[in-house]
Amino acid sequence: MSLPDLELLVGSYTATGGGTATGISHVSGGAAGTAAVIDDPSFLAVEGDRVYAVSETLDGHVSAFRFAGGSLEHLWDAPSGGAAPCHVRVDASGTIIVTNYVSGTVTVVSLTAAEAIVAQVPVPGAHGSADRTVLPASAIATAALPPVTGPVADRQDGPHAHQSIATPDGTMIVADLGGDALHEFRVTDAPSIDLVRVHRLAPGVGPRHMAWFDGDLLVAGELDGSVHRLRRDASGALVTIATVPTFDGPVGESLLSHIDVDEAGRVLVAVRGRDLIVVLDASGGGLTLVGSASCGGVWPRHFARVPGSVLVANQMSDAIAVLPLGDDGVPGEAVAQIAVGTPTCVIPLGRSAAA
User: Fold this and answer.
1) Distance from C-alpha of 56 to C-alpha of 41, rounded to nearest angstrom
2) pLDDT tens-digit readout, 234-265
3) Where are the beta strands (DSSP E) in 31-112?
4) Across the beta sheet with 7-12, what order do the strands follow?
5) Largest interatomic CA distance in the chain
6) Beta-carbon neighbour count of residue 248 at 10 Å?
């Protein structure tokens, strides 16, 4: 895919969070412009013409927009149910799921109720205007993660919800970086959120992002620098069957961020600090290291695949790097840089942001 053909939405940090962006960016023809002014929209989810964005602030909230013609029309706001929301996705239950990092909570927002509000009260204008619609409390449910801690004192003082992912069984898993645990919940569109069970990981893993492949769950350990493959046993527990370090030497400040896997089992995971995209193979039922390449910048926070390339949001480079993918799945050197302030999430339009 050539640069002029790319159309993207990019989440970023703004001045509120020490970043350089002014809100959500729209990229078209290789150039970026602000599509919506919002504080710290660090993660986005796209479903049809709807765009959902967190504001990763201490009084966090989530906002909905309608995308049309390269611009975003603000629809509604809802409290995120905690501090520093860092991930949002659309769930098959007819809700959106928001994870709040600092407070260790997960929130469900009913899209059915949200669309009813939008239909009753048209909301023109930009985000933050006086006529914005705030959802009623009955459309929102929040659950706190169980108070589990880990051995890394400055990062695991309590639960820290980092991402949610739907399971093949109709539940969802929430990665708890602070507690070295995966919390499984059942969600309804009432909305309600009920804890099903807690899956424990080894101390110091620090689970961040996850992806499913062939019925197994792949987990990026932010704090231990490894990718873990988990499989359900007869009791329903997720058990680690393979663990692969993504680099040699001490972990230090080398922190894994996003992970993704394609249909062939080629796994990509980003490593901040070492500024790498690492490739693993999950196709044989285990997990093996294939190789690694430069991320094309500094501090790869998130990435997305497009045909023939991977787009890397390099947070500290103020750019999205375009890396060609080789036949073995290992990226080559960057062929282009798209200037975007402090990018933290990149979404090619036409695909879901749930991953």
Assistant:
1) 6
2) 999 999 999 999 999 888 889 999 999 999 99
3) 31-37, 44-47, 50-55, 61-68, 71-79, 85-91, 95-100, 105-110
4) 31-37, 23-28, 7-12, 343-348
5) 58
6) 6
